[in-house]
Design brief:
The structure holds two protein chains of two kinds. Chain A is an alpha+beta fold. Helices cover 34% and strands 14% of the residues of chain A. A five-stranded mixed β-sheet of chain A has the order 2-1-5-3-4. Chain B has one domain: Up-down Bundle (3 helical TM bundles of succinate and fumarate reductases), CATH 1.20.1300. Chain B has helices at residues 2-37, 50-57, 60-90, 94-117. Classes of the chains: A alpha+beta, B mainly alpha.
Chain lengths: 249, 119
Protein backbone atom coordinates (compact mmCIF):
# COMPACT_ATOMS: atom_id res chain seq x y z
CA UNK A 1 0.00 0.00 0.00
CA UNK A 2 1.29 3.47 -0.90
CA UNK A 3 2.65 5.56 1.95
CA UNK A 4 0.35 8.29 3.25
CA UNK A 5 1.41 11.95 3.19
CA UNK A 6 0.58 13.79 6.38
CA UNK A 7 -0.29 17.38 5.50
CA UNK A 8 -1.35 20.22 7.72
CA UNK A 9 -4.49 21.87 6.32
CA UNK A 10 -5.11 25.41 7.56
CA UNK A 11 -8.73 26.05 6.69
CA UNK A 12 -10.73 29.26 6.95
CA UNK A 13 -13.78 28.88 9.18
CA UNK A 14 -16.62 31.36 9.47
CA UNK A 15 -20.06 30.93 10.94
CA UNK A 16 -22.03 34.18 10.53
CA UNK A 17 -24.20 33.25 13.53
CA UNK A 18 -21.22 32.86 15.88
CA UNK A 19 -18.11 34.54 14.43
CA UNK A 20 -17.53 38.24 14.02
CA UNK A 21 -14.69 37.63 11.55
CA UNK A 22 -13.27 34.61 9.72
CA UNK A 23 -10.79 32.49 11.68
CA UNK A 24 -8.59 29.55 10.77
CA UNK A 25 -8.52 25.99 12.03
CA UNK A 26 -5.70 23.48 11.45
CA UNK A 27 -6.11 19.78 10.71
CA UNK A 28 -3.46 17.07 10.35
CA UNK A 29 -4.68 14.97 7.42
CA UNK A 30 -3.19 11.59 6.42
CA UNK A 31 -3.46 11.88 2.63
CA UNK A 32 -3.22 9.08 0.09
CA UNK A 33 -0.61 10.13 -2.53
CA UNK A 34 -3.30 10.14 -5.23
CA UNK A 35 -5.62 12.45 -3.32
CA UNK A 36 -6.73 15.82 -4.53
CA UNK A 37 -7.29 18.74 -2.16
CA UNK A 38 -11.05 18.00 -2.29
CA UNK A 39 -10.41 14.46 -1.00
CA UNK A 40 -8.56 15.92 1.96
CA UNK A 41 -11.40 18.37 2.68
CA UNK A 42 -13.92 15.53 2.47
CA UNK A 43 -11.74 13.52 4.87
CA UNK A 44 -11.76 16.44 7.31
CA UNK A 45 -15.55 16.69 7.07
CA UNK A 46 -16.18 12.93 7.30
CA UNK A 47 -13.55 11.93 9.87
CA UNK A 48 -12.35 14.97 11.84
CA UNK A 49 -14.82 17.86 11.92
CA UNK A 50 -18.31 17.40 10.50
CA UNK A 51 -19.11 21.09 10.88
CA UNK A 52 -16.86 22.12 7.98
CA UNK A 53 -18.87 23.56 5.07
CA UNK A 54 -17.55 23.34 1.52
CA UNK A 55 -19.19 23.04 -1.88
CA UNK A 56 -18.45 20.26 -4.35
CA UNK A 57 -20.18 17.87 -6.71
CA UNK A 58 -18.67 16.05 -9.69
CA UNK A 59 -15.02 15.50 -8.58
CA UNK A 60 -13.89 15.62 -12.23
CA UNK A 61 -13.41 19.33 -13.12
CA UNK A 62 -16.74 19.58 -14.90
CA UNK A 63 -19.27 21.09 -12.49
CA UNK A 64 -17.12 24.03 -11.33
CA UNK A 65 -18.43 23.83 -7.74
CA UNK A 66 -15.28 23.23 -5.74
CA UNK A 67 -13.27 26.38 -6.52
CA UNK A 68 -11.31 27.70 -3.53
CA UNK A 69 -8.09 29.56 -2.90
CA UNK A 70 -5.39 26.98 -2.18
CA UNK A 71 -2.19 28.55 -0.85
CA UNK A 72 -3.47 31.85 -2.25
CA UNK A 73 -4.12 30.53 -5.76
CA UNK A 74 -7.69 30.20 -7.11
CA UNK A 75 -7.93 26.46 -7.72
CA UNK A 76 -10.41 23.70 -8.50
CA UNK A 77 -9.81 21.55 -5.44
CA UNK A 78 -10.84 18.38 -7.30
CA UNK A 79 -8.03 19.00 -9.79
CA UNK A 80 -5.14 19.94 -7.49
CA UNK A 81 -3.10 16.99 -6.22
CA UNK A 82 -2.01 17.18 -2.56
CA UNK A 83 1.34 15.68 -3.60
CA UNK A 84 2.05 18.89 -5.58
CA UNK A 85 1.61 21.04 -2.48
CA UNK A 86 3.94 21.82 0.45
CA UNK A 87 3.46 20.25 3.90
CA UNK A 88 1.16 23.08 4.96
CA UNK A 89 -1.85 23.75 2.75
CA UNK A 90 -3.89 26.88 3.32
CA UNK A 91 -7.47 26.67 2.05
CA UNK A 92 -9.57 29.84 1.98
CA UNK A 93 -12.84 30.72 0.25
CA UNK A 94 -12.59 32.17 -3.28
CA UNK A 95 -11.44 35.78 -3.05
CA UNK A 96 -13.70 38.67 -4.16
CA UNK A 97 -16.93 36.94 -3.10
CA UNK A 98 -19.01 37.32 0.07
CA UNK A 99 -18.68 34.25 2.30
CA UNK A 100 -21.82 32.34 3.29
CA UNK A 101 -20.04 29.97 5.66
CA UNK A 102 -16.51 28.50 5.95
CA UNK A 103 -15.42 27.82 2.34
CA UNK A 104 -18.81 28.46 0.71
CA UNK A 105 -19.23 31.75 -1.17
CA UNK A 106 -22.30 33.66 -2.29
CA UNK A 107 -23.14 33.11 -5.99
CA UNK A 108 -26.02 35.58 -6.49
CA UNK A 109 -23.98 38.54 -7.79
CA UNK A 110 -22.10 36.30 -10.20
CA UNK A 111 -25.31 34.72 -11.52
CA UNK A 112 -26.83 38.16 -12.06
CA UNK A 113 -23.80 39.22 -14.09
CA UNK A 114 -24.04 36.08 -16.24
CA UNK A 115 -27.71 36.78 -16.90
CA UNK A 116 -27.10 40.46 -17.66
CA UNK A 117 -25.09 39.77 -20.85
CA UNK A 118 -28.08 37.98 -22.46
CA UNK A 119 -26.39 34.59 -22.84
CA UNK A 120 -28.73 33.15 -25.42
CA UNK A 121 -29.18 33.30 -29.22
CA UNK A 122 -30.99 36.53 -30.11
CA UNK A 123 -32.77 36.60 -33.47
CA UNK A 124 -34.57 39.52 -35.10
CA UNK A 125 -36.96 36.95 -36.53
CA UNK A 126 -37.06 33.35 -35.32
CA UNK A 127 -36.43 30.77 -38.00
CA UNK A 128 -39.41 28.40 -38.38
CA UNK A 129 -38.71 24.73 -37.62
CA UNK A 130 -39.83 23.73 -41.13
CA UNK A 131 -37.13 25.97 -42.60
CA UNK A 132 -34.56 23.52 -41.27
CA UNK A 133 -31.57 23.91 -38.95
CA UNK A 134 -29.21 26.87 -38.92
CA UNK A 135 -26.05 25.35 -40.31
CA UNK A 136 -22.57 26.43 -39.25
CA UNK A 137 -19.22 25.83 -40.89
CA UNK A 138 -16.28 24.53 -38.87
CA UNK A 139 -14.74 28.03 -39.02
CA UNK A 140 -17.94 29.59 -37.63
CA UNK A 141 -17.96 27.02 -34.82
CA UNK A 142 -14.32 27.75 -33.97
CA UNK A 143 -15.19 31.45 -33.53
CA UNK A 144 -17.04 30.74 -30.27
CA UNK A 145 -16.33 27.12 -29.27
CA UNK A 146 -13.44 27.94 -26.94
CA UNK A 147 -15.53 30.48 -25.01
CA UNK A 148 -18.37 28.00 -24.57
CA UNK A 149 -16.15 25.66 -22.54
CA UNK A 150 -16.49 27.79 -19.37
CA UNK A 151 -17.81 25.82 -16.37
CA UNK A 152 -18.63 28.93 -14.28
CA UNK A 153 -16.19 27.94 -11.55
CA UNK A 154 -15.54 31.63 -10.76
CA UNK A 155 -11.77 31.16 -10.38
CA UNK A 156 -11.29 34.01 -12.85
CA UNK A 157 -13.26 36.37 -10.56
CA UNK A 158 -11.14 35.36 -7.58
CA UNK A 159 -7.96 36.08 -9.59
CA UNK A 160 -9.07 39.34 -11.26
CA UNK A 161 -7.59 42.52 -9.73
CA UNK A 162 -10.35 44.61 -11.33
CA UNK A 163 -13.16 42.56 -9.76
CA UNK A 164 -11.37 43.08 -6.43
CA UNK A 165 -11.46 46.86 -6.84
CA UNK A 166 -14.61 47.43 -8.87
CA UNK A 167 -17.41 45.09 -7.76
CA UNK A 168 -19.73 46.28 -10.55
CA UNK A 169 -17.28 45.12 -13.27
CA UNK A 170 -19.01 42.41 -15.34
CA UNK A 171 -15.94 40.22 -14.97
CA UNK A 172 -14.15 37.67 -17.17
CA UNK A 173 -16.66 34.80 -17.27
CA UNK A 174 -19.71 36.98 -17.96
CA UNK A 175 -17.95 38.93 -20.71
CA UNK A 176 -16.60 35.71 -22.27
CA UNK A 177 -20.11 34.25 -22.16
CA UNK A 178 -21.70 37.31 -23.80
CA UNK A 179 -18.93 37.42 -26.39
CA UNK A 180 -19.45 33.70 -27.07
CA UNK A 181 -23.00 34.49 -28.27
CA UNK A 182 -22.08 37.73 -30.08
CA UNK A 183 -19.60 35.89 -32.33
CA UNK A 184 -21.97 32.98 -32.98
CA UNK A 185 -23.07 33.14 -36.63
CA UNK A 186 -26.66 32.27 -35.62
CA UNK A 187 -26.92 35.26 -33.28
CA UNK A 188 -28.11 38.78 -34.14
CA UNK A 189 -27.79 40.34 -30.69
CA UNK A 190 -24.23 41.67 -30.77
CA UNK A 191 -25.38 45.32 -30.83
CA UNK A 192 -27.50 44.79 -27.68
CA UNK A 193 -24.58 43.16 -25.90
CA UNK A 194 -22.15 45.85 -27.06
CA UNK A 195 -24.36 48.39 -25.30
CA UNK A 196 -24.22 46.27 -22.14
CA UNK A 197 -20.44 45.95 -22.51
CA UNK A 198 -20.19 49.76 -22.66
CA UNK A 199 -22.56 50.19 -19.69
CA UNK A 200 -22.15 50.14 -15.89
CA UNK A 201 -19.99 47.02 -15.67
CA UNK A 202 -17.95 48.21 -18.66
CA UNK A 203 -15.52 45.85 -20.37
CA UNK A 204 -13.11 48.80 -20.57
CA UNK A 205 -12.49 48.50 -16.82
CA UNK A 206 -10.33 45.44 -17.62
CA UNK A 207 -6.67 46.37 -17.29
CA UNK A 208 -5.52 43.16 -19.00
CA UNK A 209 -3.72 41.60 -16.08
CA UNK A 210 -4.45 38.26 -17.80
CA UNK A 211 -4.84 36.51 -14.42
CA UNK A 212 -8.26 35.15 -15.51
CA UNK A 213 -6.70 33.15 -18.33
CA UNK A 214 -3.82 32.03 -16.11
CA UNK A 215 -6.13 30.37 -13.58
CA UNK A 216 -8.83 29.07 -15.95
CA UNK A 217 -8.95 25.27 -15.48
CA UNK A 218 -10.63 24.78 -18.88
CA UNK A 219 -8.21 26.98 -20.90
CA UNK A 220 -11.03 29.24 -22.05
CA UNK A 221 -8.80 32.34 -22.26
CA UNK A 222 -11.37 34.85 -20.99
CA UNK A 223 -8.78 37.66 -21.32
CA UNK A 224 -8.89 37.17 -25.10
CA UNK A 225 -12.70 37.31 -25.03
CA UNK A 226 -12.64 40.52 -22.99
CA UNK A 227 -10.25 42.20 -25.39
CA UNK A 228 -12.17 41.06 -28.47
CA UNK A 229 -15.34 42.34 -26.77
CA UNK A 230 -13.65 45.71 -26.16
CA UNK A 231 -12.67 45.96 -29.81
CA UNK A 232 -16.18 45.03 -31.02
CA UNK A 233 -17.77 47.49 -28.56
CA UNK A 234 -15.52 50.29 -29.86
CA UNK A 235 -16.20 49.52 -33.53
CA UNK A 236 -19.94 49.39 -32.81
CA UNK A 237 -19.70 52.72 -30.93
CA UNK A 238 -17.74 54.39 -33.76
CA UNK A 239 -20.19 53.02 -36.36
CA UNK A 240 -23.01 54.54 -34.32
CA UNK A 241 -21.39 57.96 -34.68
CA UNK A 242 -20.74 57.94 -38.41
CA UNK A 243 -23.29 55.61 -40.02
CA UNK A 244 -26.95 56.46 -40.66
CA UNK A 245 -29.24 55.05 -37.92
CA UNK A 246 -26.13 54.17 -35.93
CA UNK A 247 -25.23 51.44 -38.41
CA UNK A 248 -28.24 49.38 -37.29
CA UNK A 249 -30.51 47.65 -39.80
CA UNK B 1 -18.11 62.48 -13.63
CA UNK B 2 -18.35 58.68 -13.43
CA UNK B 3 -21.17 58.73 -16.00
CA UNK B 4 -19.21 61.01 -18.34
CA UNK B 5 -16.11 58.80 -18.08
CA UNK B 6 -18.26 55.78 -18.92
CA UNK B 7 -19.67 57.61 -21.98
CA UNK B 8 -16.25 58.49 -23.41
CA UNK B 9 -14.57 55.21 -22.46
CA UNK B 10 -14.70 53.77 -26.05
CA UNK B 11 -13.00 56.91 -27.40
CA UNK B 12 -10.31 56.76 -24.71
CA UNK B 13 -9.75 53.08 -25.33
CA UNK B 14 -9.43 53.77 -29.07
CA UNK B 15 -6.80 56.47 -28.44
CA UNK B 16 -5.09 54.20 -25.88
CA UNK B 17 -5.00 51.27 -28.32
CA UNK B 18 -3.53 53.37 -31.10
CA UNK B 19 -1.06 54.84 -28.59
CA UNK B 20 0.13 51.32 -27.77
CA UNK B 21 0.57 50.59 -31.47
CA UNK B 22 2.58 53.74 -32.11
CA UNK B 23 4.35 53.74 -28.76
CA UNK B 24 5.57 50.19 -28.97
CA UNK B 25 6.30 49.89 -32.68
CA UNK B 26 7.08 53.24 -34.29
CA UNK B 27 8.67 55.00 -31.31
CA UNK B 28 10.75 51.91 -30.55
CA UNK B 29 11.97 51.95 -34.16
CA UNK B 30 12.66 55.69 -33.89
CA UNK B 31 14.72 55.20 -30.71
CA UNK B 32 16.64 52.30 -32.28
CA UNK B 33 17.49 54.35 -35.38
CA UNK B 34 18.20 57.77 -33.85
CA UNK B 35 19.62 56.80 -30.45
CA UNK B 36 21.51 53.64 -31.39
CA UNK B 37 21.81 53.09 -35.14
CA UNK B 38 23.11 56.57 -36.06
CA UNK B 39 25.47 57.14 -33.06
CA UNK B 40 27.00 53.67 -33.55
CA UNK B 41 27.51 54.38 -37.25
CA UNK B 42 25.28 51.47 -38.27
CA UNK B 43 22.87 53.77 -40.13
CA UNK B 44 23.80 56.82 -42.20
CA UNK B 45 22.51 60.11 -40.77
CA UNK B 46 21.96 61.58 -44.26
CA UNK B 47 18.22 61.03 -43.89
CA UNK B 48 18.15 63.17 -40.73
CA UNK B 49 19.46 66.31 -42.46
CA UNK B 50 17.25 69.26 -41.41
CA UNK B 51 16.06 70.17 -44.90
CA UNK B 52 15.01 66.61 -45.71
CA UNK B 53 13.41 65.95 -42.31
CA UNK B 54 11.57 69.27 -42.46
CA UNK B 55 10.21 68.57 -45.93
CA UNK B 56 9.07 65.12 -44.83
CA UNK B 57 7.56 66.37 -41.58
CA UNK B 58 5.76 69.34 -43.08
CA UNK B 59 3.95 67.38 -45.79
CA UNK B 60 0.30 66.59 -45.02
CA UNK B 61 1.02 62.93 -44.23
CA UNK B 62 4.13 63.95 -42.28
CA UNK B 63 2.14 66.37 -40.12
CA UNK B 64 -0.52 63.74 -39.42
CA UNK B 65 2.08 61.12 -38.47
CA UNK B 66 3.97 63.57 -36.24
CA UNK B 67 0.78 64.70 -34.49
CA UNK B 68 -0.22 61.07 -33.92
CA UNK B 69 3.29 60.16 -32.70
CA UNK B 70 3.21 62.97 -30.14
CA UNK B 71 -0.43 62.75 -29.04
CA UNK B 72 -1.46 59.09 -28.97
CA UNK B 73 1.27 57.78 -26.63
CA UNK B 74 0.09 60.44 -24.16
CA UNK B 75 -3.32 58.72 -24.08
CA UNK B 76 -1.61 55.35 -23.68
CA UNK B 77 0.34 56.68 -20.70
CA UNK B 78 -2.69 58.39 -19.15
CA UNK B 79 -4.87 55.28 -19.46
CA UNK B 80 -2.16 53.00 -18.06
CA UNK B 81 -1.57 55.32 -15.11
CA UNK B 82 -5.31 55.51 -14.43
CA UNK B 83 -5.52 51.72 -14.25
CA UNK B 84 -2.42 51.50 -12.07
CA UNK B 85 -4.17 53.95 -9.76
CA UNK B 86 -7.39 51.87 -9.73
CA UNK B 87 -5.57 48.54 -9.34
CA UNK B 88 -3.63 49.91 -6.38
CA UNK B 89 -6.88 50.56 -4.53
CA UNK B 90 -7.72 53.95 -6.00
CA UNK B 91 -11.21 53.28 -7.42
CA UNK B 92 -12.58 55.86 -4.99
CA UNK B 93 -10.31 58.62 -6.23
CA UNK B 94 -10.84 57.79 -9.93
CA UNK B 95 -13.28 60.69 -10.37
CA UNK B 96 -10.34 63.03 -9.72
CA UNK B 97 -7.40 61.01 -11.12
CA UNK B 98 -8.99 60.13 -14.49
CA UNK B 99 -9.96 63.69 -15.53
CA UNK B 100 -6.53 64.91 -14.41
CA UNK B 101 -4.64 62.31 -16.46
CA UNK B 102 -6.86 62.57 -19.52
CA UNK B 103 -6.74 66.35 -19.20
CA UNK B 104 -2.94 66.28 -19.42
CA UNK B 105 -3.18 63.96 -22.45
CA UNK B 106 -5.75 66.25 -24.10
CA UNK B 107 -3.63 69.35 -23.44
CA UNK B 108 -0.53 67.60 -24.77
CA UNK B 109 -2.47 66.52 -27.85
CA UNK B 110 -3.61 70.09 -28.52
CA UNK B 111 -0.04 71.36 -28.13
CA UNK B 112 1.19 68.63 -30.51
CA UNK B 113 -1.43 69.56 -33.10
CA UNK B 114 -0.55 73.26 -32.75
CA UNK B 115 3.15 72.45 -33.14
CA UNK B 116 2.72 70.41 -36.33
CA UNK B 117 0.45 73.08 -37.83
CA UNK B 118 3.21 75.65 -37.22
CA UNK B 119 5.92 73.46 -38.83
Amino acid sequence: MAETLVKKFVVTRFDPDKDEAPRTESYEVPCHPDWKVLDALNHIKDEIDGSLAHRWSCRMSVCGSCGMNVNGQPTLTCKKAVSDLPDTVEVTPLANFPVVRDLVVELDGFMEKLKSVKPWIIRAKEKAVEEGPMRQSQAELEEFKQFSMCINCMLCYAACPVVANEPEFLGPAAIALGHRYSVDSRDEGAAERNEIFRGEGTVFACSYANECSEVCPKHVDPAAAVNQAKFNAVIDWAAGLVLPRGGKE
Amino acid sequence: MKHLLLKIEPLIWLLFGQGILLGTILLTGWILVVNLGVPLGLISDDGLAFQRAHELGSSLVGRLVLAALCALPLWKGAHHMRHVSIDSGGAGRDAVVAPLLYGVAALGSLLAIAAVIRL
